[in-house]
Amino acid sequence: MTQVSINALVQGAISGNHIVSFPTDTVPALAARPDRSELIFAAKRRSQDKPLILMAASAQALWPYVQGSPAELKLWQQVAESYWPGALTLVLPASAKVPAAMNSIDPSTIGLRVPNLRLALKILEQTGPLATTSANLSGQPPLESVAEIEAQFPEVLTLVPSELATATIASSLPSTVAKWTGSDWEILRQGAIELEC
């Protein structure tokens, strides 16, 4: 049993020694410090060609992880202001700050998201940006309850029920994933949000 308080979960993530799980506005996340991304790949038995997403409490916390022209940055920031916090993942050119382990097949890009759930934002405000993915073994449906997550990932830190009581019911739809092509957006996965390109 690895149910802990928010403070213990935050400390576990910051230490780099633990994978943590918390609710988001879509499906529950598995998360780890970006430089410890290999923990998630190992736990999920996830192929290296499936990159992780960098999740944070604000867009400002994520911009250091991307690089683009001033015009591109302005456009990305406008999209972020329109849709974040929310179920939209933006895949953008990665800066040198992104640990290669997050996307070892194509380290030139990184997926970014700010979830629209107060509990997730409260955690991310304290941990800083985390490498995240859905809570499931690779190729299987996302797990939706703490009990399912604990059964499949007994080593992962989850929140005690009293901490989860304030979490609103999330959408079971994943986030929409939009990749910047250099001139426009390419929708890689249609999810909970319709991106007005």
* % residues in beta strands: 15-25%
Low-pLDDT parts are none
Identify the strand order in the major beta sheet: 2-3-7-4-6-5-9-10
Helix content: 25-40%
| CA radius of gyration | 16 Å
Given helix and strand content, the structural type is alpha/beta
Separate helix tally: 7
Shape: globular
Biggest sheet, open or closed, and with what strands and sense? 8 strands, mixed
Question: Mean of residue pLDDT?
Answer: 92
Order of helices and strands: EHEEHEHHEEHEHEHEE
Number of distinct beta strands:
10
Span from first to last CA?
45 Å
Notes on the structure:
The strands form two sheets. The protein has an eight-stranded mixed beta sheet with strand order 2-3-7-4-6-5-9-10, with helices on both faces. The protein has a two-stranded parallel sheet with strand order 1-8. The model has no long low-confidence stretch (mean pLDDT 92). It is built from seven helices and ten strands. A hairpin with a 4-residue loop joins strand 9 and strand 10. With 197 residues, the chain is α/β, with parallel strands linked by helices. 44% of the residues are buried.
Please give a handful of descriptors for the protein shown.
two-stranded parallel sheet, 10 strands, 7 helices, alpha/beta, 8-stranded mixed beta sheet
